[in-house]
Specification:
The complex is a heterodimer of chains A (333) and B (277). Chain A is an alpha/beta fold. Helices cover 32% and strands 22% of the residues of chain A. In chain A, strands 6-7-8-3-9-10-12-11 form an eight-stranded mixed β-sheet, sandwiched between helices. In chain A, a hairpin with a 6-residue loop joins strand 1 (13-22) and strand 2. Chain B has 277 residues and is mostly helical. Chain B is 75% helix and 0% strand. The chains are: A alpha/beta (333), B mainly alpha (277). Chain A binds chain B through residues 63, 65, 68, 93-98, 101-102, 104-106, 109-115, 123-124, 127-128, 172, 175, 178, and chain B through 104, 167-169, 171-179, 182, 186-187, 190-191.
Amino acid sequence: MSRSPYGTADPTLEIRDLSISFPTPRGAARVVDHVSLSIRPGEIVGVIGESGSGKTLTALAVLGMLPRGARIDSGRILLGGDSLLDKTERERRAIRGDRVAYIPQDALRSLNPTLRVGPQVGEPLTLHRSTSWAVAKRKAVELLAAVHLRDPARRAEEYPHQFSGGMQQRAMIAMGLCLEPQLLIADEPTTALDVTVQAQVLRLVREIRTEHRTAILFITHDLGVVADLCDRVYVMYSGAVVEEGPVDRIFERPSHPYTRGLLRATPAMHGPKEALIPIPGQVPLATERPKGCRFIDRCAFAIESCQRPPPWVEVEPDHKALCVRTDETGAAA
Amino acid sequence: MSAFADYSIRRHGLLTLGGVIVAAVIISAIFAPWVAPYSPYDLDVTLMLEGPSRAHWLGTDEVGRDVLSRTIFAAQISVKVALFAVAVGLIGGTIIGMLAAYCGGPVDTVLMRLMELLFSFPAILLAVVLMASLGTNVLNAMLAIGIIFIPGFARLARASTLSAMQQQYVEAARSIGMSHSRIILRELLPNVVTPLLVEAAVAFAYAVLLESALSFLGLGAQPPDPSWGNMLNTGRGFMAQAPWLSIVPGLALFLCVLGFNLLGDGLRDVLDPHLRD
């Protein structure tokens, strides 16, 4: 079973069979293809994949903030049982920042440069609870203290450019925590940060989970961060989830050839130095995907039956891969 | 190193010069009744077309009014018209440009094609047409000049808004559930306003010039109210006997426009982040 102690609670977020496409001159580009995932309260779930794998769009769909032109072809998104896709824009706006918080990719540009940090951090209160700015500012100082910013009262009066990268990221997290959301979506929040600062931010994320039992969806392309932080992980490739399971199982027994490739292309922290092996080829364009398995052109294990769409195979309890050759790949790991 | 320092001193020198001229114009406009030695309307038929003297430093006009006093009072009208016209252009253009950029799609297309339509008329012609249909008085001159300014401000506002909308903080604002109007006013406006203010300073100079042109054509300030434009028009008839009637308001106009242009250019340099150290 999952190492998460929250294995049986009802999921905070459940995405079922979500597909998103963009119209292009060469037909609809399926950028998110039948993605399903779920997160329970207090669980940190990682979504890992290269840029363009659809992980950010999946997150934006949860927020109801898909870019212009994107179309949801199928699927359901349930937040604490409420179907988000059936809601109006106004209802979804009431959910954003209140029940769901989002920490965007580049926190260093996510604070408005012309406004002081304090009012920005406390702003969700004025938006969703109609509090006064004075109350929001007091709350902002508390929040900045909670994310371990030194001298929060003075910091709240400063402008974003007076903050270091790590401090801006922590301010963004503070803003996200303002109304104690059920779900926190963090989109590569540590990518732009120094390693030491990154460690502080990850520790903060873990603290949030234990203190508030917030469900956290953590999007990243950094396997090290996943190993360090997450309970469960979904591996995305070219718009689809290709493997899912508890983090330790996936690292122990990566079963989709793409997951194996990712692990072999990442330097190991401990143990003997092995040569890094890049995955040959490139991610296919959404309009030019192979008919069968989408990884077939880059896969060393490809056989005849990979020309057909692959089934989900349960490698071990709670650990599945979208590959017919899991016996081979799992054993070879 | 020293070349750069020289350059920076020169740049700020021009900005200061512009600021001083603009301040002088505005102060003499506001305090005209106290600054001017005579009333701009007092006739003295015994002193028609007198040259500069101790009593009348810049001479008198064809009905014996003090030219210096009329020039100072004329600044009042110029500043008032320019201020109002730039405000109309700035506010109207900012609203139209930001809406076009934020809404995009058909709203953007319709609004911006309308702006191009306005833009395609020569400014003076458009002003004359507007004045002809609205009637000739100072208020309508302000409105006409303001309308001429709207497309320029709208284009600038649209471009700045489009680039501000690419910024991550707009997405962050949406992600905390901010409404569209609040995003426009709180997140975008403060980031769009700087280039618009610089443009406003330059537009101010142009507004002063346009107001004079309209008054020269008899469409702006009506006699006996003094305006640099109608003073120039009067002076034209006495070019040989009394050149000061044209030279004085012409010089005032020149200095005023120069001042606002220097201020606008200087502000742009100072506020341009690429030139900031």
